[in-house]
């Protein structure tokens, strides 16, 4: 056998011995004593070498000494000795991947930083040496926050402590009073002892188990990343499907128009402009319309081509028919008096008629049929109405009623109709506070309220009903809320905070509101930041809120975010800080303005029909077949409603939101404009508001996300 072959054979035997050693080490660790004995006999009989496990009694003795020295330096406040031992003896994989270790290390840095203050709670009684020591330690703590501690700046629990180096006297600051309680040190030491007992023993963990855990962790990370990608693809698909429906509807209308021109009918420039507004309703808004010369043929190509990825061919649709008229009197009677199952089927069918109709004339006709026949009985207060079903004992009835109301609120004319129902907000806010937190009923109610908050009259009613205080309480524990609920809740809170009346409500509980909003800035869901920034910017125009913010060192907390690699966010933070330090008095509110804050944008989410919990039985009529079979009415001439176009102002990267919005159309405006909106990494952050000329006329009038 050659020397190279001998070397290879030696490596194989060494690897086999090491593997058998790991197996024996694991069996010993789990105390399989009889199995170990059989394993040893079998290995000896076969002449297999078994490597010895790493470690011995000397290591155990050394571990106890290290643990004792760490606890002693903790008690003495000797941060240099402590962190030298910490660095040398705590495994690096524990320090960098274990959240408990990172949390404990953060609080240990706080402990050693304020140690001189604990010896002298009254800073005035500190000697020069103590004062110098405190300033040195605070400086070291600041360095830690900017390096290893920066990873925790996105965690709500730790965010207030990033202001600690900037607070003149932490002993009297309300945010840090817990640090100087007598119970804080014993609690921290107890956590340290438990951690040391576990982590210093971690070196004894069998190598076989360590290999398995590492592989399992990698697999879980891969699955989590896959889930995130799937969610992203589903959202893109939903948006593409909605755009497709819109394009098919417009294409059908244009085919009819072309046929009319062949017959010699004239087409007005106003009509062409209205088609363009609808065509680009979720994209370029008014800018696209203004860039097109309607007096010159063919200019539409130049408006469309910069946003076209090559040649797009459209399938010519058949003529889009108008849906049959219904017997609304019979329909309304069965909705409130019929059996539960029939009510669910009707609520579902009516919603589908709205959500599945083609955007444009067909959907407008459906909605006008509902409104002109007063489907929800908003003008009839003496009888039981569809809205009363929100108080039904049946959860499916409540959910499907909420879904229908949400569908109405997705359309501008529907919001105007809902706003005329006197008891609407009372019923919806009651459901919001009583339904289970993440139930579909509650989500639909929340989204409907958020869309209705585009209208001034509804904003006023929500503020008067105490919704701001309820939202702030709900948002103080964001980790208990889904991303969907969190996004709509913050967007609703911002819309209410933009009103002078809303700002005054916030001023009554300024400390609570500021604490919740600054905590939300550090939340991992970056989609909420535009609304948090907008709310902060708005309420900081009130002098009493500014004063409370200064006492809470809000400016120092905000400056922590300027270190992030996000120039848009940094500019918005600077605007908020400028607002905090401004001396301008808040102007009077024009509550006598006409209720025209709503925009005329319709964004009917496909997700409104997701997660259907009610399924028709075999041969049971449902949907349009139920309506046209059992409730067919006499066809009447429906008056077409000419809707006024109120396009959204284009968002600006620099300033916080200062106009009522809803999340999804706001997101659509940003995502489809080829500018700085798409030059950033694919995070979920970004607030996009106003023009630089005026802080009081910013991003426009309506956006909301799709239900996922």
Question: What can you see in these coordinates?
Answer:
By secondary structure, the chain is an all-alpha fold. It is built from 31 helices and no strands. Helix 6 crosses helix 9, helix 22 runs antiparallel to helix 23 and helix 23 runs parallel beside helix 26. It starts with a helix and ends in a 37-residue tail after the last helix. Its main location: cytoplasm.
Brief characterization of the structure:
Its main location: cytoplasm. The chain is mostly helical and 708 residues long.
Helix content: 55-70%
Query: Please, what is the average pLDDT?
Result: 76
Q: What structural category do the secondary elements indicate?
A: mainly alpha
Number of strands: 0
N- and C-termini, Cα separation? 67 Å
- Count of alpha and pi helical runs: 31
Report the sheet with the most strands, covering strand number, pairing sense and barrel closure: none
Shape: globular
Low-confidence stretches: 282-318, 590-596, 637-649, 672-708
**CA gyration radius, whole angstroms:** 33 Å
Q: How much of the polypeptide forms β-strand, as a percent range?
A: under 5%
Pfam family, one: ARMC9_ARM
Domain ARMC9 CTLH-like: 65-201
Region (Disordered): 640-708
Subcellular location: Cytoplasm, Cytoskeleton, Cilium basal body; Cytoplasm, Cytoskeleton, Microtubule organizing center, Centrosome, Centriole
């Amino acid at each position: 056998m050659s020397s190279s072959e001998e070397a290879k054979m030696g490596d194989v035997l060494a690897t086999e011995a090491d593997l058998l050693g790991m197996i024996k080490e694991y069996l010993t660790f789990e105390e399989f004593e009889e199995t170990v004995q059989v394993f040893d006999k079998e290995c000896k009989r076969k002449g297999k070498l078994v490597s010895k496990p790493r470690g011995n009694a000397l290591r155990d003795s050394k571990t106890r000494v290290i643990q004792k020295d760490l606890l002693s330096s903790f008690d003495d406040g000797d941060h240099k000795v402590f962190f030298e031992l910490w660095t040398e003896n705590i495994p690096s994989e524990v320090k960098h991947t274990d959240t408990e270790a990172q949390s404990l290390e953060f609080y240990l840095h706080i402990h050693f930083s304020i140690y001189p203050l604990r010896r002298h709670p009254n800073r005035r009684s500190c000697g020069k040496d103590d004062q110098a020591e405190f300033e040195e330690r605070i400086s070291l703590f600041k360095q830690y926050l900017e390096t290893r501690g920066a990873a925790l700046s996105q965690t709500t629990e730790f965010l207030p402590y990033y202001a600690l180096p900037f607070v003149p006297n932490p002993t009297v600051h309300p945010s840090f009073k817990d640090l100087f309680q007598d119970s804080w040190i014993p609690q921290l030491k107890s956590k340290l002892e438990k951690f040391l007992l576990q982590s210093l023993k971690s070196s004894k963990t069998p190598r076989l188990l360590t290999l398995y855990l590492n592989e399992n962790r990698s697999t879980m990370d891969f699955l989590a990343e896959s889930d995130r990608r799937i969610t992203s693809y589903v959202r893109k698909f939903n948006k593409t499907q909605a755009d497709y429906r819109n394009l098919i509807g417009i294409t059908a209308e244009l085919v009819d128009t072309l046929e009319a021109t062949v017959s010699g009918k004239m087409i007005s420039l106003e009509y062409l402009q209205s088609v363009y507004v609808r065509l680009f309703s979720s994209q370029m808004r008014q800018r696209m319309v203004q860039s097109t010369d309607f007096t010159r043929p063919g200019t539409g190509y130049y408006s469309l081509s910069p946003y076209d990825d090559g040649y797009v061919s459209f399938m010519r649709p058949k003529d889009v028919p108008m849906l049959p008229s219904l017997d609304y009197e019979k329909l309304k009677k069965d909705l409130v008096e019929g059996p539960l199952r029939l009510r669910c089927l009707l609520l579902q069918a009516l919603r589908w008629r709205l959500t599945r109709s083609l955007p444009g004339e067909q959907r407008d006709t459906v909605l006008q049929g509902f409104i002109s026949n007063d489907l929800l009985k908003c003008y009839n207060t003496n009888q039981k109405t569809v809205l009363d079903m929100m108080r039904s004992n049946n959860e499916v009835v409540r959910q499907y009623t909420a879904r229908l109301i949400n569908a109405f609120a997705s359309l501008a004319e529907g919001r105007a109709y809902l706003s005329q129902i006197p008891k609407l907000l009372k019923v919806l806010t009651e459901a919001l506070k009583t339904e289970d937190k993440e139930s579909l009923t509650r989500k639909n109610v929340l989204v409907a309220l958020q869309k209705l908050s585009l209208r001034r009259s509804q904003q006023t009613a929500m503020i008067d009903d105490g919704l701001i205080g309820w939202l702030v309480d709900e948002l103080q524990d964001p980790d208990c809320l889904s991303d969907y609920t969190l996004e709509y809740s913050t967007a609703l809170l911002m819309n209410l905070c933009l009103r002078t009346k809303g700002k005054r409500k916030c001023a009554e509980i300024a400390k609570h509101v500021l604490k919740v909003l600054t905590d939300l800035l550090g939340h991992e869901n970056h989609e909420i930041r535009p609304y948090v920034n907008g709310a902060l910017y708005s309420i900081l125009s009130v002098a009493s809120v500014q004063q409370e913010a200064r006492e809470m060192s809000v400016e120092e907390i905000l400056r922590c975010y300027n270190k992030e690699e996000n120039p848009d966010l940094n500019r918005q933070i600077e605007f908020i800080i400028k607002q905090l330090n401004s001396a301008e008095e808040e102007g009077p509110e024009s509550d006598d303005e006409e209720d025209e804050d709503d925009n005329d944008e319709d964004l009917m989410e496909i997700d409104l029909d997701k997660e259907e919990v009610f399924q028709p039985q075999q041969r049971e009529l449902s949907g349009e077949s139920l309506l046209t079979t059992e409730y067919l009415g006499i066809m009447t001439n429906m008056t077409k409603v000419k809707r006024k176009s109120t396009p959204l102002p284009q968002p600006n990267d620099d300033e916080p939101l200062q106009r009522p919005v809803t999340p999804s159309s706001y997101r659509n405006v940003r995502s489809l404009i080829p500018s700085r909106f798409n030059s950033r990494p694919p995070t979920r952050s970004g607030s996009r508001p106003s023009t630089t000329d005026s802080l009081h006329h910013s991003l426009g009038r309506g956006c909301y996300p799709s239900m996922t």
